[in-house]
Inverse folding.
């Protein structure tokens, strides 16, 4: 049996009774795929890194479970993604207990058995155990830890989230990118020879941190994004230079040869859904568009029609 931990987020719009029913439903899903549920923890309401389905806060819940068939993790993750009540879900594999930990537990059990014997000197045993614990205890620099956490939390201009499964199964793969930033120029919308709309644009994100001297530092990153079909048309119509965008998609690298025979490479984010930030004359959030809500993305390695070749892409 392998040990796993499921962290999932539920919208805070539900009542306490409704939340209990949702937790029972998630547990039933795990049991359905053969999981043995262990420790569970309700972490309370927390602020989300970015709005999800118009929700800014959510309830965080942790559930530990054992599962013999690791291939069932993909089915569990897919079912959770389809559940409208679950905003986000992530499963991680918990490390197996090392030989050193097993030996340490054996020594603990042996000490407990020794102390349980009639006539044992409990005071001397307690002092010996206390001395051993002091030797094993490592000091933690809380100030240094807080500074490190602050540095991590400041990097909120660009968000990469690896949802789903992290384990040592060789056939598991995951490709997901989420960025929040500003358009560097108006999107360029063109049409492929087969009549498919395609938009290309660049999103700039900023990483902000304090250096060792306490001075504020900023580093910009520029991300090439490609949108296809109806999503490309919407971006071309409503997105403008400087506008705030949240782009969710997959990372793809393509290559081509120029007229001199030199090979070129370009890494892009193929957009699957996009949320527009508020306009200057608006208050509140912007509109959200999903590739799947408008039309299915055409098959093909470049995100376009089957007959589209790299040289056909008009940029």
């Amino acid at each position: 049996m392998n040990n796993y931990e499921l962290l999932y987020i539920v919208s805070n719009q539900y009542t306490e009774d409704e939340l209990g029913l949702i937790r029972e439903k998630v547990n039933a899903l795990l049991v359905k795929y053969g999981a043995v549920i262990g420790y569970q923890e309700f972490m309370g309401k927390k602020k989300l890194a970015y709005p999800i389905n118009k929700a800014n806060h959510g309830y965080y819940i942790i559930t530990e479970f054992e599962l013999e068939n690791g291939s069932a993790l993909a089915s569990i993750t897919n079912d959770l993604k389809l559940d409208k009540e679950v905003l986000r879900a992530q499963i991680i594999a918990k490390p197996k207990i090392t030989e050193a930990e097993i030996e340490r537990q054996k020594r603990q059990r042996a000490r407990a058995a020794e102390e349980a014997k009639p006539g044992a000197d409990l005071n001397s045993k307690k002092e010996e155990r206390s001395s051993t614990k002091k030797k094993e205890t490592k000091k933690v620099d809380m100030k240094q830890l807080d500074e490190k956490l602050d540095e991590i939390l400041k990097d909120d201009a660009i968000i990469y989230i690896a949802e789903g499964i992290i384990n040592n199964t060789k056939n598991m793969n995951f490709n997901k990118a989420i960025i929040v930033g500003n358009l560097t120029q108006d999107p360029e919308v063109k049409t492929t020879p087969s009549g498919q709309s395609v938009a290309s644009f660049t999103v700039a994100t900023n990483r902000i941190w304090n250096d060792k001297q306490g001075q504020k530092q900023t580093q910009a990153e520029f991300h090439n994004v490609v949108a296809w079909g109806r999503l490309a048309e919407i971006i071309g119509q409503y997105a403008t230079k400087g506008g705030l965008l949240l782009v969710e998609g997959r990372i793809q690298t393509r290559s081509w040869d120029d007229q001199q025979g030199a090979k070129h490479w370009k890494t892009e984010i193929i957009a699957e859904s996009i949320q527009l930030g508020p306009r200057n004359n608006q208050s509140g959030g912007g509109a959200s568009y999903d590739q799947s809500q408008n039309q299915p993305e055409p098959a093909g390695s470049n995100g376009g029609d089957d007959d589209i070749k790299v040289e056909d892409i008009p940029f």
In short: The chain has seven helices and 13 strands. The first strand starts at residue 2 and ends at 11. The helical segments are 16-32, 72-82, 99-115, 122-136, 142-154, 229-238, 291-294. Residues 2-96 form a domain with the Alpha-Beta Plaits fold (CATH 3.30.70.60).
